[in-house]
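INFO  loader      accepted 1 record
INFO  loader      residues=35
INFO  predictor   begin
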Amino acid sequence: MNPLDITPDPWRELRAHTPARVALGRTGVSLPTHE
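INFO  predictor   done
INFO  writer      dumping tokens
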């Protein structure tokens, strides 16, 4: 795989600075208890 084909993750830098679950791709206020 060509490294230039990989889209950079814009949330990666923010995730490094917070324990919060950032940009999970889900909506709403609840998360499932079993993942």
